[in-house]
Amino acid sequence: MEALDGNAIGGMLYHVFGCEMTMAQAECGRCGACGPVAECEVYLGGPGVVVRCRICHTIVMVLVKVREMMCVDLGGLSKLERAT
Amino acid sequence: MAGAALLGRLTWRVATVTAVVDETPRVRTLELEIPGWPGHVAGQHVDVRLTAEDGYRAERAYSLASAPGEPPVITVERLEDGEVSPYLTEDVRPGEAFEVRGPIGGYFVWRPHDGGPLFLAAGGSGVVPMRAILRHRRHSKSEVRARLLYSSPTLEDVIYRAELDGEEVVHTLTRAQPPGWTGYARRVDADLLREVAWPAEDRPLAFVCGPTSFVESVAAGLVELGYAPGRIKTERFGATGGR
Amino acid sequence: MKKESHRSFVSRGFRGRRRDADADPARVPPGQSVTRDFPVLSAGPTPHTPLDRWTFSIENGGVLRTWTWEEFRALPSERVTVDIHCVTRWSKLDTTWEGVSVDTLLDEVDHDADYVLAFCDGGYTTNLPTEDVTGGKAWVVYTYEGEPLDPEHGGPARLLVPHLYFWKSAKWVRGLRLLDEDEPGFWETYGYHMYGDPWREQRYSGD
Q1: Do C167 and A47 touch (CB under 8 A)?
Q2: How far apart are CA B132 and CA B125, in angstroms?
Q3: Chain C residue with minimum CA distance to A46
Q4: Domain annotation covers residue C43
Q5: Closest chain A residue to C205, measured at CA
Q6: Most buried one in B118, C8, C41, C88, CB count within 10 A?
Q7: B112 vs C93: CA distance, rounded Å
Q8: Cβ contact (<8 Å) for B57 and C11?
Q9: Who among A43, A46, A66 is closest to C88 (CB)?
Q10: Is the CB of residue A30 less than 8 Å from the CB of residue A56?
Q11: Tens of pLDDT along B137-183?
């Protein structure tokens, strides 16, 4: 399956963070690559959503909906910054 | 109004279909009435949620085809093994409804003050947000130059064909061409881009939308031509056209 | 059947994935519907390990046993026809596969591990009780519907454990790590059920 990008999960991210997040700058904790969430690789993986760094492909975010609760793992990011 | 579209509360609302237009044998446009719709920015999308009697739910994202100021409109391509698109393109009738969340998106958007010149590259249903951008440009009487490179398998698959005739559009038909066709007849490659895209020294703003492989190949091609990567906005649809 | 939130709006006539109306309901676990499609769902890019570098290993800290692709293909294999059930609610009946029974693989090592962790190219993992991958219940398969397993569907080889939800049938499997205690794999860490029995609808931890 070909990866999508952060645009595809704009609604889900808005729901989780309470605001528009596709323009937020995401910095990969592994390789340091920085770019808008909209440009990250997104895999709609079935059980959950996996977001990867476009440069090194390491996982930067995982979003899973368990019953009515969203579980979000941002551990792969070293920075997630929204422009004000 | 544009500010509200980015900061307003994002809740699921009921969207009633007011009209349907069959654009091509597989593509249908749905005009929607959404109470409390806050307005939107060209390039944004909505999430559509369908719930079945037994509680089963499916969600997909669809780009808005209408310009700011117009009612919300989506255009949906029916995918062979789709879950949502067959319902939207074949089953749902005017007067019926589903849930919608939006508008969503702040990256793949264009407002007149963003300037140009605009180079838009669309593969298949990737043309939907481009229609919103072009309509907005026209309504706002923007003087920004815009050119759309639009890749489709055949002429019958071209969405919004009559409307696009009024714009600067370069078509390429990749699978089959009508007799006498003098336009491009192949997938977008480096030579085609060089001939069609605005020159890099004009500092164009590029929007590329369609299947992932189309987007990646065109975006890379534009970088090769000297486009600033920060001035290339990309939006990937699934390999078969949906998201 | 679990009730959905009272706020959901039902769309007339929507039924979900193209369904197989002829399916025998006794073969369909609760909350599932049968499809003829075979959706491709993935957590990452499709790996492409060349066969001359592919190995399958049984490990427990160190490598106990490893097979190259050629050695693996020389092992006795079986053709099986099974039903598969994905936690995202689609089921597919009568899918045929060919591969090596996990019994054949585990018989080659001396162990008393109660659990295994399947590990894969790309880093995916999933955990299973040893009892659930032995006794003819699991295979490492390399053929689907008579053709070499497509990379999109887990080729060259994937785990097949049809009696559990399909996320346990790990794609691009490269081995089994023997565990004394159950340890959550990738999706289990995020809240999916440690065991995953579709007949008891064990989708999430606590079900």
Answers
A1: yes
A2: 13
A3: C41
A4: no
A5: A66
A6: B118
A7: 54
A8: no
A9: A46
A10: yes
A11: 999 999 999 999 999 999 999 999 999 987 899 999 999 999 999 99
The C-alpha atoms of residue C128 and residue C164 are separated, in whole angstroms, by 9
Domain count, chain C: 1
CA C99 to chain centre: 13
Which residue in chain A has the smallest CA separation from C5?
A68
Compare CB distances from B6 to A8, A15, A20 and report the shortest one's residue.
A20
Which domain CATH number covers C109?
Answer: 3.90.420.10
Confidence band of B239 (pLDDT split at 50, 70, 90):
low
Residue numbers in C near B56 (CB within 8 A): 15-16, 33, 89
> How far does B216 lie from chain C, in Å, by closest CA?
15
Indicate whether C113 belongs to any domain: yes
Residue C71 token pair: 């050695």
The rounded distance, in Å, linking the Cα atoms of C44 and A44 is: 9
Please name the residues in contact with A56: beta carbons below 8 A apart, sequence gap of 6 or more: A28, A30, A31, A33
Q: Which residues of A touch B46 (CB under 8 A)?
A: 11
Q: ipTM, 2 decimals?
A: 0.95
| Secondary element (H or E) of residue A26 | strand A25-28
Does the residue C35 lie in any domain?
Answer: no
Q: What pLDDT does A80 receive?
A: 96
Strands A59-66 and A49-52, how do they pair?
antiparallel
Q: What 3-state class would DSSP assign to B184?
A: strand
Residues 203-242 of B with CB under 8 A from A: 211-213, 233-239
Closest CA to C126 of C168, C72, C77: C168
Task: For residue C15, tell me if it sits in a domain.
Answer: no
Residue C148's domain comprises 53-200
Q: Domains in chain B, start-ordered, CATH in brackets? A: 2-104 (2.40.30.10), 112-237 (3.40.50.80)
Strands B146-152 and A49-52: unpaired
CA proximity to C180, closest of C130, C125, C105? C130
Sign of CA dihedral B193, B195, B196, B202: positive
Partners of residue A15 in chain B, C-beta under 8 Å: 10, 101
H helix or E strand, kind and range, residue B22: strand B12-24
**Residue B7 contacts A, CB cutoff 8 Å:** yes
The H or E element containing residue A71 is strand A69-73
DSSP string, B124-173: GGGHHHHHHHHHHHHHTT----EEEEEEESSGGG-TTHHHHTTS-EEEEE
Buried/exposed code over B30-48 (b: 16+ C-beta within 10 A; e: otherwise): bbbebeebbbbbbbbbbbb
Q: Could you tell me if B101 lies within 8 Å of chain A, comparing CB atoms? A: yes
Q: Is A1 within 8 Å of B235 when comparing Cβ atoms?
A: no
What is the domain extent for residue A69?
A: 4-81
Q: Which residue of A has its CA nearest to B214?
A: A2
| Domains: count for chain A | 1
